[in-house]
Every structure is written in C-alpha cells, then in structure tokens.
Amino acid sequence: MPSPSQVPSARPAAPGDRFEQPTLDGMLADPLQLDLRHTTFVVLDLETTGGAPDGAGITEIGAVKVRGGEELGSFGTLINPGVPIPPFITVLTGITTAMTVEAPPIEAVLPSLLEFLSGAVLVAHNAPYDTGFLKAACAAHGYRWPNPRIVDTVALARRVLLRDEVPNNKLGTLAAYFRVGDQPNHRAMADARATVGVLHALIARLGGHRVHTLGDTIEFVKAVAPVQRAKKHLAENLPHAPGVYLFRAADDRPLYVGTSNDIATRVRSYFTAAERRARIKEMLGAAVRVDAVECAHALEAQVRELRLIAAHAPPYNRRSKHPERVQWLKLTAEAFPRLSVVRQLTADGASYLGPFAGRAAAQAAVDAIHEALPLRQCTPKLSPRKASPACALAELGKCPAPCQLAISVEEYDVQAAAPLRAAFDGDPDAVVDPLLARIRKLSDAQRYEDAAAVRDRLAAFLRAAVRMQRLSSLTSIEELIAARRTERNAWEIAIVRRGRLAAAATAEPGVHPRRTLDVLRPTAETVLAAPGPTPAATPEETERILDWLERPETRLVEATSGWASPARGAARWKMLLQASRA
Fold first, then answer.
1. Under a CB-based contact definition with an 8 Å cutoff, are residues 34 and 213 in contact?
2. What distance in Å separates the CA atoms of residue 88 and residue 96, rounded to the nearest whole number?
3. R_g (Cα) of the chain, nearest Å
4. Nearest of 173, 216, 229, 180 to residue 201 by alpha carbon
5. Which Pfam family, giving just one, matches this sequence (predicted)?
6. Phi and psi of 77, rounded to 5°?
7. Which of 163, 221, 472, 558 has the fewest CB atoms within 10 Å distance of its CB?
8. SS3 readout for 305-373
9. Which helix (H) or strand (E) holds 433?
10. Which residues of 19-40 are buried (b: 16+ CB within 10 A; e: fewer)?
11. Quick one: how far is CA 126 from the chain centroid?
C-alpha cells in the first residue's frame, strides 16, 4: 500500500469551517469587491523535474486554503512524473525517483486538485511558473482549466516593498524578512505554508496604499502611473447605476464627460493598468473630483453625455464636441435652383441634404450631383425673363445655360431640380444611375483611378441621403413612446418628440409600465417643430435614439403618426455603400 505521503491528503473541515464566499443581502458578493479578509485563497506550490511545462514533470503538489488569516484546509501529495528525477533536482528538493515510484500520476490527482481550487483565488510565488505546469497538465489530460483569479506574491512584493528593505524577492528572503514561522525548504507543502505567511504580511502592507479588496489588489500589482495611484480616491462613493460622469478641474470646469451602465465600475477603470491613453492620464492630473449624474437607463445616459459635451466642450473629449459645425447641402428655392453648402437649416422653402461631418464630404456630394444632373453651378440669382452673361460651362455644353434663357423654368425643374428633390427625400436613382454608368464606362476603359474617384463622390452623396432619410423618419413624428424590457424584468421607457429624447424612466419589476408612463408623460419636455430633418436635437442624439428603437427587444407603445422610410429610399443602396468601403 502507498504511504500517506504518496496520496493526496486534505484536512477535513472543522465544524466552524465555511468554504463558500461570503454573501451580501442573501446574494453572492462580487469576488472583486470583497474585502481581502473575506476572500478565500488557495496558496499553491509545485516541485517539478525542472523541464518545460508539457503536461508532465510535476513531482509534488502542496496547497493551503486560507481565509481571514485562518487555515481552512490543505492538499498535498507526491506525483509520479513518469520519468527519472534529475540528480540536481534531488539535491535541491530531496525528492528521489524512488519516492515517486508508487505515487499517483498527475492525471489521477487533477480532479481533486481542481475541486480544491474551485471558487478560490490562486496564490503562488512566481505564479506563471506553477500555473504553466497546471495548465499544461489540464490540456494534456482533457481537463478544463478553471481560469481562477491569480495573485502572484513576487509581483505583489515588488509593488509593496522598497528596494532598501530586501535585496531580492525570493521566497526565502521574504519569509526571513517577515519572520514567517514556516520557512521554505524546496518541498511543496513547506513552501506553500511559507507563501501563506508572506501573503498575509503583504496584505497587511496594502492598507497603507488604500488597497482593501481583491479587485484593488489585482490592479495594484499591475503597472499603474503614479498620477493614477494618487487620484484613485476620486472613484470612491460613486453609484453603481447607469448615468454620466464628469471629471472636473479645480475651477469646476468639466475636463472629461463619459457614460456607463455602471458609473462606479467605469470610473474605477481610469485608475487601473487598463487605462493607457496619455491624454487621460494628463486629465487625471488636473482632475480634483468626479460628479455623477444618475439616469433612468442607458439611452438617457448616452443622450445626456452628448448634451453635456456639446454644452461644455470638455478639452479631453474628442468626439461630439462641436455639433454646430456640421454642414448641409441646400437646393435653393428660386426660379433656377442651385446647390449651396450651409451650416444652418432655415424655413426658406429650400430642400436640404445632410448632415455632413465636414466641408470635404459635402463638396464630394456636390460634385456627384453636378456630374449626374444638369444643375447650374454658378452662384448669381438668375432672372427667368432677362438673360445674363454665360459662363465657361455653358459654352462647353456642360450646363443647360439658364442664364441665357436656353431652358425654361419648367424644363429646368423637370430635368434637374425635381429629380434632385426626389433624391433628397426618396428615390436617389436620378443621381445613382448616371454615376454607376460613368463608373462602368471608366472601368471598361481601364481608367480605374478615375472610376474610384466617381465611386467616392457617389458614396458621399449616398451616405448623406441614407442618414437624412433615416433621421427624417423619426423627426417627423410629433411624439413616439417606446419601452424595452431588461434582463431583470424592468421596463425602460422613452418619450421621443420630433427626434429628441423628451423624458425617460424605468418601471421596476412589479410596477405596471403604464403607471410609470402616466406619471412621466406630463413632465416630458415640450419640443416645438422646426425646419429640417434634425430641428430639435443634434443628429448624433437622434441616431442614438434610433439605434435604441431599432433593437429587437424594444416595443413601440404609442406614436402620433406612422414611423416609416421611403420604399425606394436611399437605404436600399446600403450594399453599394458597404462595397465602396471595402
């Protein structure tokens, strides 16, 4: 029969032992948010043959389960590596080939070890070495690696201890420095117990760094900039709720505005190694506090973020800062209409296309239209009864010459203005078909660069037409009410008026959504009609609302008019747009 030292051993649980994680209000607590004294650790050490991790080579396992400074159990066994143990390993550890002959192989021990590790945080000194062997063994013998959270006492010591305290971070050095009762001797169980003592001593040091939870400990070990460590307290006392957060400077200026479904968790991430943006670290240096604005649900948070960014133009936000800078394409309302690039929509009877992000995109769409339709390109206002001097385009035959009265107002409208208005509001084929024919002709002539230029101009026009028609479908509705059921059976409710979010609320589980809506509706913002497809909100806000409405789980509750897009609208050319991007 094998000796007791050759079989897995675990101390039986005492009557007071509890291996499960602590709970809060009857629910399992988030392990990352648990205080370290409530966290269950399994401190592990392996002895090996000294080779590379390949699924074998482990000669001994020692593991100790602890929580709150108390030992909950232990697991220890010799392992038959299946190969002779090298002499230098025997000299180092004292483990001989003869000692492991009758020991179980690693595949016989893995199920018990993985069960012992279940639900706990794995701790090891130089953890990548030990976990590398265990992962390889699991892969070699068909076991799933549980991927536990890991704390490496070597990395933790590097962060906690000063260079003049210890000459190195070897286990023996740290155990001697902290006067640990169990000194390491290159045997798995002894080294595991020594690591337990080192772990407890390092945890005692963490309090001075404001590190009290497992999540804080894992992030503390990572490479975090000094400014992130110094300003970490700004993330304290924030709500775990959807909303907007504002980093503010000493003079109360908003430096950065963001949004999240969980404000507290998102703001904490700015003070971890995951945040690597140089400008954000610069922003943290100037920030003195973080304000939180709780919202009913994620849509309201996104909308509030856009409005706050537009109102304050925070220096460290890059997007959505200047919604007033969008460009529009205007087909003037006159006898012989022409195109003009403008910044604002007015109630002047003109037709508009947009919005465009910049002047270059707007000009590309202008060039596409001029290539497809016989629209005049001159800027003077022309009289339908009195001729005026012709330009070079008229002399070259590239303009119907309304300036010379070569075309009547009615003919000009039929040939140029009316098809363009239809392309803006509905069917864009009057622009698309001539340009596609032009692209084919250039491609057949192997003038591929010229064909690509026409393609890009067509894409600029189509993107704007698709965007405007999509926006107009919602902004034309005086009021639309929608609701979305969440995973916890609450209902997110949104009142949208002319494409602007007028009110938002959440009906909690057990509360009828209609009751919440009846309370919400009288408090909703009054939104007046105005010209253009996005009169009451920025294009970005209306597009965020559209994205939320178009989700499959969103339900339409009420609408003052139908929500629809043109049957032969620009959206049917989306495949062409995708191909142009590719």
1. yes
2. 10
3. 35
4. 180
5. GIY-YIG
6. -165, 150
7. 163
8. HHHHHHHHCCCCCCCCCCHHHCEEEEECCCCCCCEEEECCCCCCCCEEEEEECCHHHHHHHHHHHHHHC
9. helix 429-444
10. eebbeeeeeeeebbbbebebbb
11. 32
How far is 328 from 464, CA to CA, in rounded Å? Answer: 9
Q: Which of 342, 372, 371 is closest to 354 using CA atoms?
A: 342
Tell the residue number behind the tokens 């000299």, with chain if given: 91
What's phi and psi for 212, nearest 5 deg?
-125, -15
Q: What are the CA-CA distances from residue 461 to residues 153, 338, 353 (Å)?
A: 60, 16, 9
The dihedrals phi and psi of 45, each to the nearest 5 degrees, come to -145, 140
| 243-248 β-sheet, strand order | 254-260, 243-248, 289-294
User: How far apart (Å, rounded) are the C-alpha atoms in residues 129 and 137?
Assistant: 13
The C-alpha angle 209, 215, 218, rounded to 5 degrees, equals: 75
The dihedral formed by the CA atoms of 87, 93, 94 and 100, expressed in degrees to the nearest 10: -80
User: CA separation (Å) from 264 to 7, 113, 407, 566?
Assistant: 47, 36, 67, 43
Residue showing tokens 């503010």:
248
Measured between its terminal Cα atoms, the distance across the chain in Å is: 70
Say if residues 493 and 481 touch (Cβ distance below 8 Å): yes
CA-wise closest residue to 540 among 321, 253, 344, 292: 321
Each residue's pLDDT, cut to its tens digit, for the chain (582 residues) gives: 333 334 444 444 443 343 444 443 433 456 778 889 889 999 999 999 987 787 778 999 999 999 999 999 999 999 999 899 999 999 999 999 999 999 999 999 999 999 999 999 999 999 999 999 999 999 999 999 999 999 999 999 988 888 789 999 999 999 999 999 889 999 999 999 999 999 999 999 988 877 888 888 887 887 677 788 788 889 999 999 999 999 999 999 999 999 999 999 999 889 887 787 889 999 999 999 999 999 999 999 999 999 999 999 999 998 877 777 888 999 999 889 999 999 888 888 899 998 998 889 999 999 999 999 999 888 888 888 888 887 877 777 778 888 888 888 899 999 999 999 999 989 999 999 999 999 999 999 999 999 999 999 999 999 999 999 999 999 999 999 999 999 889 999 999 999 999 999 999 998 999 999 999 999 999 998 877 787 788 899 999 999 999 999 999 999 999 999 888 998 898 888 888 877
Query: Cα(16)–Cα(92) distance, rounded to whole angstroms?
Result: 39
CA distance 106 to 87: 21
Beta strands in 27-69, from DSSP E residues, in sequence order? 27-28, 40-48, 58-67
Do the beta carbons of residue 496 and residue 511 sit within 8 Å?
no
User: Which residues 6+ apart lie within 8 Å of 467 measured at CB?
Assistant: 354, 355, 539, 543
